[in-house]
Amino acid sequence: MYLKTSRETKRLGTVTRSPLYFQFSETMTGVTTIRALGAEERLLSQQSNKVDANHRACFLLWAAKRWLGLRTDIIGVVITLAAGVAVVVGDIGAGAGLAITYALKLSESLSWTVRMHAEMEMSMNSGNISSKLLVIVNIATTQAGHVVERVLEYTKIEQEPAAVVEENMPAVNWPQKAKVKVRDLVIKYSTEAPAILTNLNITI
């Protein structure tokens, strides 16, 4: 009963998780368009609904695991009780503690075995594997697109001039006199803006 229930709830969790990751990756790609259209609230509401649907499936799986834990604990108590009764009724002697210890270990091993068997069946679910691969491919494609876009932006940036231009360096013995003369100076706020001062000559 637990195996069938846990397998179906795990599949339900996988089915509800894939649209959640897919919308998240798509939102990362089109965040500029979403902001331009003012669709943040609508997409946030959709994402919240998908999160709630996935959490409901996860809660059902958690409840199934707790149900299994309760049943295995009850079986373990019965086994331990039977071992204790056998120790009291029978004349086991020095082996009493060993019998009770093995009874406790048996209940723990039973719970672990059932859970591992269920986890193996759930992990081999093809829908679970394919959805994870789909999410990984979507995220990798999105990140690769961002990297290529950023590299293309860098190739369009104008190269900065060198920090030191040898042709513009003053002479070694400069200045010989305390005098500065500026000729035909042109001042602009930016390279595209018109000149605010032209042909300015200053002698200091």
TrEMBL record:
Pfam families: ABC_membrane. GO terms for cellular component: membrane. The chain crosses the membrane at residues 74-104. It comes from the Eukaryota. The keyword Acetylation does not apply. SUPFAM superfamilies: ABC transporter transmembrane region. Keywords: ATP-binding, Membrane, Nucleotide-binding, Repeat, Transmembrane, Transmembrane helix, Transport. PROSITE patterns: ABC_TM1F. One of its GO terms (molecular function) is ABC-type transporter activity. Residues 1-122 form the ABC transmembrane type-1 domain. PANTHER family: ABC TRANSPORTER ATP-BINDING PROTEIN_PERMEASE VMR1-RELATED, ATP-BINDING CASSETTE SUB-FAMILY C. This is ABC transmembrane type-1 domain-containing protein. It comes from Powellomyces hirtus. The lineage of its organism: Eukaryota, Fungi, Fungi incertae sedis, Chytridiomycota, Chytridiomycota incertae sedis.
